[in-house]
Structure prediction request, 862 residues.
Amino acid sequence: MREQRDPVCGERILFGQAKCGLPIRVVPRQKFSRACAHLTVDFGAVDRALPGPGRGRRLPAGVAHFLEHKMFEKARGDLFSEFSRLGSSANAMTGHTSTSYVFSCTDSFEENLDVLLDVVFDAYFTDELVQKEQGIIAEEIRGYDDSAGWRAYRALLEGMYHKHPVRDDIAGTERTIAQITADQLHAVHAAFYAPHNAVLCVAGNVDAAAVLRRVDARLGRVRRGQAPVRPPLPVEPAGIRRRRQNVRMPVGLPIFYLGFKGPVDELSGAEAFRLETATSIALELVLGETTEFHDQLYADGLIGEEFSWTTRSERGATYAIIGGQTPDPRALERRVLSEVENALDRPLDGVALERVKRRILGDYVRLLDSMEGLCGQLAECHRAGLDFFSLLPRVERMSVKTVLRQARRLLQLGRMASVAVLPPKQ
Amino acid sequence: MPRTESAFTTIPIDRGVTLHHRRSDRFKTELVRVFFRAPLDDRRTERHLFAALLGRGTGSTPTRRDLAARMQDLYGAGYGASVQRLSGRHVLGLRASTVSGRWLPGRPKNLRSLLQFLSEALQGPPIGPDGLPIEDVFEQERRTLLRDLQSRITNKSRYAMDRLRQEMFKGQVFADPDIGRAEDIQGAERAACLAEGMRVLSEGEADIYLLAPCTPLQAEKLIRKHLALAPRRRERLMRPPLAAPRRRPRRVTEALDIEQGKLALGFRVEDWEPGESHRESLLADVILGGGPTSKLFRNVREARSLCYDVRSTLDRNLGVWTVTAGIKPAMCDEALTAIRAEIRAMKAGHITAEEVDTARRAILSGLRAVPDSQSSLVEFFFRRRLTKRREKTVEAVARSYARASVTAIPDLMARLRLDTVFFLDSVGQVEATVGA
Prediction:
């Protein structure tokens, strides 16, 4: 395996590839008791078609999440229980563009790794098991429907996007999951769950060479599967779909989200990182806790501790979201928009930028102590085609001008939508 | 994998003030936590407001903005103050952490800067010309606390648990959220909050936890220099009395416009002594509803597809066992029956060797992961200190848990009494008794 040392703390990261084509990243940290592994497949909720002519064969919304649930059941039984019997804790998460299967353990790492590889690369689906899962996932969907934050996020994406599947719920709906069949799951698995369409990231008390040997022993020494030809996503208009929405449900205090729709073409990893990071820094300089504006919003009672923002770029859907709980969504919207508009018209504060960079350096060092965080970040970098060690220098090189230019690209007032979750009308 | 011992060196600083130091080069961060104990009484709201004021700033960083900038200058240091209800008492805690300077350009002395900051924080919140907390700041924090109360309904699972507790402990201190009721928060006064908070800081038994790559001697010198706390009396714990369990269980259903029903069952353990049969009760809790191999998960979720989420939690201080599930509203009775059947099975001793083995492994694995997180280490050992448990290392605790006896579980389960069933539904509000 190829070894690289992180330039700040000297931690080792080993890069390799199993014989079957699975890329592997290992961060050995022998002083820790635990080890964790993330096996991330480049297939998520926005992938809604099987490879084929034209736009491919359509898949119902929620299929990636449904598949994630079903991957733990095999002919030999429930593999969640096998993790438990080995004393580890396991989980899986479906996002818009990827699905991750993870475990962490303090013992029997290699046996746990075998189970993880079986979870992801062995397919076993029956109509009976699919039917049983429909009830469980329907309950999960209903649970999310009662989450005000999730409803606001969902409504905002629906308001910003016309056709891009990012506007659909990751878990689908009761109607769409009822259309899922065992045959469909087999076809999806065969198309996308190939070793070279995934990445294994491991961090903690492990030996990198042993990880590679174990993967080769379990998955074989022959390259498996074909590179998936991902059907193109629907063409998304540049503008938003709906400027303003209200969602009514029982909440103690209204929740308000403001969303900015960014470029609709698929960005390269480097371009997406620059746009997301620079915009996030710009928002910190304009709305962050070190600004007078933030102090004033808090003093006026318009925001609480959880007021925040995020930026994301997910295969042709790049957006920024700002918000939190507020007693007066309209007033918060007015104030935030006015501040963002004014701030993007003038030079940003260079001293404040250096302070944010210092915080980011601190975050980077902290990340090196977080096994789960490291695995997640390494998987993201692999999928984006980015060198993990290049992230910090990329941020350090960002000038006030770059930050402002990128932020202006994403934070366009003409491509903005908002959502307020309000209590039911009396 | 090698097992790493995780002891803290305990260094008495003064009467009622103890430093717990752990030298570790495993982490790239340094952590300081300071805890002050107080009795669980009717001054809870004042303490919460005081903690909120402490979190707002210090004499030299009086505004949120100043505080945020100071933390950013320390490479994104974290700081916070809060009050928790722990093992029958209140604990006012301050937490500060930063990246160790040895990893940063110029090797800044971040730990010293952080201790200097904490020393200012322990002088109390910024004070106005009238000698009291600044009025505007106080009103803002009062509003934040009121909003916390108001927004509890937004998280439906948390709301169902709050309501279950309210119903189980009506008229007792445990019925309300720890921050108090709206009228308590509205009625709190600046002078009383300041006086109560400063009293806890100066009189409450104090524990300081320092995790940094220095020797115990260096740690002691640093703490004596920066966080010199005056001597104080050792805590004499006075637990608030707990009313006897209800004789007939009660069922309360509340209406709300929701998609998924939230079922919360509250059981009391008869004649519970705080801290009793700790190992066995934890083992029983994990077997019943502690993860994907628990009885509730396998038999209520997986076998019957009744819910997505179902779990049990034991409050070992109060002897209260709760089971929560998110279910289709029409399935409430079926879920209730299924959950109670699992509890009856445990009472009858229907626990397989595999269930016990898996639960033990889960507990031991969780314990062995404790040393990988600075915060977990502090919380784990501080909680054990509060309950006067003897083991000094995670491995010793693990050995003790490995000896947990499964034969004690049916007796423990036989002492369970269903007290209250709370169901968050959309079908109106009724109150009735249910069969025990």
Observations:
- Chain A has a mean pLDDT of 95.
